[in-house]
Write a structure and sequence with these properties.
The complex is a heterodimer. By secondary structure, chain A is of the alpha+beta class. Chain A has 14 helices and 10 strands. The two termini of chain A are 24 Å apart. By secondary structure, chain B is mainly β. The chains are: A alpha+beta, B mainly beta.
Chain lengths: 367, 807
Amino acid sequence: MNMRSTTASWMAAIVFVLFAGLGRAVAAPPGSPWGAGYFPNVPLVNQDGKTLRFYDDLIKDKVVAINFIYTSCGDMCPLETAKLRQVQQMLGELVGKEIFFYSISIDPERDTPEVLKKFMEKFEVGPGWQFLTGKKEDITLLRKKLGLLGDEIEVRNLSAHRASMLLGNEATGVWMKRSPYENTKLLTNLLGHRLLNRSVVSAQGQSYAAADHRAKRYDRGEYLFRTRCAVCHTVGGGDGLGPDLLGVTDRRDPAWLARWVKEPSKMLAEKDPIAMALLAQYKDLPMPTLGLNDQEVGMVIDYLKAETLRLAQDHDEHEHHHHHHHAPGHHHPPGPDDHQGEHEHHHHVSDGQDAAGDAAVPAPDQG
Amino acid sequence: MQRIHAPSPSPTGDVDRIHGRLSLRKPGPVAHARHLAAAIARALPAAAVVAGVFGATTGPAYAKFDIPTGAPPSPLFGAQPFTQKMLRFEEFGLQRMTSRECRNCPPLPPPADCFSSPANQAIDTFLGQDLHPLPSRQANTRKQNPWKAKISECVRPLAYSPAEGRSPGEWFAHQRWDEFFPVVYFQTAQAGARVNGGVRDRMQRHRYQLGEFGPGGLYHNTTGLAGFDGTARGIEIRFHPNMPVQDPRALWTFDGTLPPKLLQARYGEPILFRHYNALPIDETANYGFGLHKISTHQHNGHNPGESDGGPHPFFYPGQYFDYRWPMILAGHDHINTDASDPRAATPDGFGGTIRIPGDWRETMSTHWFHDHMLDFTAQNVYKGNAAMMNIYSAIDRGNEALDCHYEDNRNVNLCLPSGTALDWGNRDYDVNLLIADKAWDQNGQLYFNIFNTDGFLGDQMTVNWLYKPYFEVRARKYRFRILNGSVSRYFKIALVDAAGNRVPVYLIANDGNIMEHAVRLLELPEQAIAERYDIIVDFSPFQEGDRLYMVNLLEHDDGAGPKDLIPLNEVLSGEYENHVEDGEYEGDPAVGKFLEFRVKAYDGIDLSMNPADYAEGKKKMIELPRPTAQELANAKHRVFEFGRSDGTDDKPWTVKTDGGPGFTADVRRLSAAPDEGTLEIWHLENGAGGGWAHPVHIHFEEGIILSRDGQPPPVWERWARKDVFRIGDGPDSSRDVTVAIRFREFPGTYVEHCHNTQHEDHAMLLRYDVENPGQIIQIPAPMPDWEGVVYEDTFTLPTYKTGSPAP
């Protein structure tokens, strides 16, 4: 069972019961300090050049996800944006109707509406998610008020900015900070379920009896791939925002690949030819520098190697008979039932979605 | 602000300790201004923008001293320091477990609307009932939540909502239920602030009849005002008589009342704690902070995982959650299993003791329990979800006259200052102090800034919830159990007389555990959030009418960590300026005197032990269960690095396990799984560099500090078992701490985390499970909801069984 049909099936299995009639039309509950008096109503300009007021137009009465980025960021921001894009895909039509995403630039001088719009196209950002710019001091004030600015150094030094995102429901006054490394399903659950306060009957949320009591084990490379790479890449699942990495360890020189995973921004600055070709091919979306150390780079590459090998073997064997095998670098939960383990193995196919072990996340009713 | 780094801790011992300044600046207001100017000059290019921003906002929220965090100074309504009598803790009172199911006991009464707790009288009537329904091994999901109808009006129609919020199924059933079947119970409801109806008066063990709680005693009148003799009835929640009563949405606490609550428990008597959630159904009825879903953790009880109260097994308004605390000594299954050691024992109520299994060296004394709700711990604890717990044993009996160890070494009772009227648990001269910084808005209502970045600091010091109270003491020895109940602030406390001379104290317990030796100090060690210090103070050198003061010396300017240690003389002389000027504080308002003692003559006989007799080189109090060389050599090692991911300043708070990537909290991720019955060595490291401080707290077991930055720990930690380990730049912290820790008796899910509750809420937390050796089954992760609990699968890190190579 590959990941796409799994995704589709659990999305179909999840039912939202939209609770009509109990909308909260009153901005920020009475007596709450987190209302018009707290949030600055600064003017911001979106990617279409339209001016909007932060409190009145963007957050009042809404469930929102807010983060701060800058488009020339070589490390965290692309990851955050790709992660939010995944969450947006999971939430589907709710985004723009009941849940609103905002990415605000901390580099407003360079990030004009045109620049923001190009950035959004690169990331294939869907409707309901706006990118905003404005005056530097207004944006700095916003960061401070939202608890995302601790030190003056973060104003001067763009790359020192906080990577947390803020999720909240302005009408109920509930706000939480989360990280871009957060599991996509948990973020989706948080926005769609806890903050929007929908009733969710989730088939994937299991009863005690049904819950699997055997843990799934992940090697480190797999975990790094999942939290850092899977937002843009798949292995054997086709291109995402970045190329499909199936076989990349065979295609590329090992030294080049290791350096590319470690410090792509530098290589792009040096105009490495392969790097430049990739940049052109993938819509000018640069590979971000993720801050991995040498050990972690090695783990990721080992994972890609092993995954390529495993998928190749799987493919061969599928054509003959159902056959149990081990791929190097993979761990099996020990147990008498090895076929059970193999089924779990298939859940590890990575195509940019979070794989097995992460359940119970609601998605909007497609119907 | 420029981070100022502390020099390594200075050596102490029995000698006088006076700390020097941490900062390089010279004392005095001129130098103060110079320092400020230098800081601005460094930031000059951006200063214009930044100063404009920080100055242009509403209120002085972005002052140099951002205290209270994100808000203007708390108004005092004309209150003066040391003008109100301190409230002593009110006991919950334990009752014998009943086996009769109550026939017509109504369930928890629902509130009148979506925004309130139930009516005052209704809660009192309910709490006065017998326990009903009786506790069950697995969660009671057959009975329905009595508030279901109201919830269906307020939230959404519910077909089903279980009465008990505990996760159903075997893994969350009470382990060894019959073996540790509850003998006693107490029930309480977390509710909005209300007037105390006196419902627990009759449950005080002293009954307001005995010792200092009896007529004529210092603590017979609870508030110092007329009409409060021998009762708590009528006590409202106010921080000071001049200040307004707290709104039920601003403050939520046990029973919804003051005085703050205390559980007195003894070993060998398993307790059932039934906690009702009587908070508003509508989550917006909270004055902007606090969440109505809760989970209660006894810090650092030796409790099975299902009763440990971690961040995920939370429960909803209308529901209850049964926590079963076995009250056993760690080592119960492994050492002294035949209960033959007289030092492992509990008071029997008749002047003797009952022996119990386990390691007597693991005897614990001062605990507390509080909320641990995912993402909202800081807010809920700050809002009032905290209580203390005194644990009594044969060694720490709470009776200073019975078979004292100082009379005869074969006696077990240390005879710490307490009293003599009751067989055990006398509180006459054994006092709980909950110290916390708070803030309130311009209406005097409790305030918290949920958008704080690095921690929340209040500007007003409170003791037992009251603004700078005074406390009357007899001229004899007292024991004080001091808990830092802040969410982000560290203290450094000294005791001085009216002339400003330091008064020595003896530290006898660290993190609630009596040490091997008492340590004489002129100043307490740095005290992090949740750390407890028990001290003995001797007031007998003083006369009736004399006054003494507790003084806090540790300055902060934001919630990231302590900044400077201010010299005592500067604090007392007024040279350290921390008053309000132009609407903002010049210095840290929480530095200074915060509690006044008023000495009263004593005509009794102080039979309590002399702590000087138990100093280093002399008698021992509780021998430290040091690991043997063999155990250390065989121990598995684990490395936990707390900081911003990858050691830089721009990533979220994470914990890196065994050299792996830094993770934020995900309770489905199992980071470590030591085997039950083993000893491990855990290396706790501060990964983030200058300025950040993290008090790391490991649930369930106490640890012994082996080293700090490779050196032996200071003397007050050398004799101690602890559960909060400070890493960071504070005066008594270090970058690394190495801890030896055993895991015994109860497999289950626990957590380890930074106890700056803001960092904890931003997920500097990881899950660890104690497993049976060879276990391959992992406990699934519960996800509660109004309609009950569903489960998600657990996944593990690769090193979760193996740890790291020994360094």
